[in-house]
Amino acid sequence: MAGSKTRSTYRCAECGWTTAKWVGRCGECQAWGSVAEAATTPATPSGRTTATPVTRPAVPIGRVSAEQAAHHGSGVPELDRVLGGGLVPGAAVLLAGEPGVGKSTLLLEVAARTAQRSQRTLYITGEESAAQVRLRADRTNAVHDELYLAAETDLGAVLTHIEETRPRMVVVDSVQTIGASGVEGVPGGVTQVKEVAQALIRVAKTRDITVVMIGHVTKDGAIAGPRVLEHLVDVVLHFEGDRDSRFRMLRAVKNRFGPVDEVGCFDIGPDGITTVEDPTGIFVERHHGRVPGTCVAVTMEGRRPLLAEVQALVTTSPAERPRRTTSGLDGSRLAMVLAVLQQHCGIRLHQHDVFASTVGGARLTDPGSDLAVAVALASATFVSPPPAGVVAMGEIGLSGELRRVRDLPQRLAEAARLGFAMAVVPADPGAAQGVRRGSSDRVIEGMRVVEAPDVATALRLLHLDRRTKHALEVVEAGSSESIV
């Protein structure tokens, strides 16, 4: 027989894309000069794979015990909420986020809470020294005898620490700093990250250890390293927040053991990280009186309703092209709301500068906040505050109609719980439970709920239409003309 042939492959150092011949530009990530020749491997003849011994025999699915995949609380309620009940033995969790957002602080708190339940925990740090982690542990009161700490950057040493300490939970900070000897590439590269992740996942599955890995992100917010890393792990979490705010949010992008539409809220402070079970107060400003240009929206973050205040400022523009500035809102969405207000409500702002923002660094991406933005803009235009204790929710269509929003009963219940007296919602008799068909005004849990078919009707119900503008002009002119 002729000797087995060898074939050369070329791999991108940025994303791991492979090709049979060299190219100057990666066909996957479009990076220039990142494709290099990989190690040659003997070509395997097709049809020559033989059967090998199995590790465990196949059994009927009814005989497989589900207790090994039961959730165990981590000691951090908001993290358990996102995970669907807690950590699962043998699971591999990847936590990613921007630098300085608090990933290490969060996992050090989780490791300390786990150690307090007499479950040995191993914290592997590859970015900091052991003394630096100890200083943070002293500040956050995370020192416990069952919490073991090791500063290692070699994969073999990490596996040895796991073998010697036999923990129930391992935290690796971070997966991009651990290198595997005998594997090509530098730590953080595609091949290295893949090998390190696969080795840690094998340990997690064979020993029923929960492994939590911290991952870096790119400038675009994506997880650094090969895309296969997200496929290998069981849970992918994103920790996000604004540098100017102490508020942090934890989202599940992938979760094999629970839902992916839950959100956890945290507060970063000098003493560490604490859970925020009722974050509404962060995004709503408590005014002493009625203020023009403000309106409260009820948005859904996963399964959790959150109230956020929208503020708007409208001024005459001295420039030929007026400014449109947003903070926490989508600029294109604001432009659409302005167009609808001009076309269907007669509010012309093409010669005015418009500034719109949210309170507390909240980011409103839910289309159900469109009506609150429109109310804030109309209130700022007419310098007339909306009624006290009002919330608005509804998606605005291009024809000016108000479309129903999801989870309306939960939104109304949250607004009523916080003491709001009035809610303006889209006119849909079946949108909420217990609504009498044909009703446009009802009371739910002590809160008056008013239905409006379009944005013009909603503004009229709140006295923020063109009649309000006419009334203000009459008052300013000192005329005794009656308002019709």
From TrEMBL:
Keywords, alphabetical: ATP-binding, DNA damage, DNA repair, DNA-binding, Hydrolase, Metal-binding, Nucleotide-binding, Stress response, Zinc, Zinc-finger
Identification of the protein by name: DNA repair protein RadA
Stretches the record annotates as Lon-protease-like: 353-484
TM helices/strands, residue ranges: none
Role played: Plays a role in repairing double-strand DNA breaks, probably involving stabilizing or processing branched DNA or blocked replication forks. DNA-dependent ATPase involved in processing of recombination intermediates, plays a role in repairing DNA breaks. Stimulates the branch migration of RecA-mediated strand transfer reactions, allowing the 3' invading strand to extend heteroduplex DNA faster. Binds ssDNA in the presence of ADP but not other nucleotides, has ATPase activity that is stimulated by ssDNA and various branched DNA structures, but inhibited by SSB. Does not have RecA's homology-searching function.
Domain comment in the entry: The middle region has homology to RecA with ATPase motifs including the RadA KNRFG motif, while the C-terminus is homologous to Lon protease.
Binding site for ATP: 97-104
Pfam short name (any one): AAA_25
SUPFAM superfamilies: P-loop containing nucleoside triphosphate hydrolases (SSF52540), Ribosomal protein S5 domain 2-like (SSF54211)
Residues spanned by motif RadA KNRFG motif: 254-258
Ranges for domain RecA family profile: 68-217
Family: Belongs to the RecA family. RadA subfamily.
Record organism: Nocardioides vastitatis
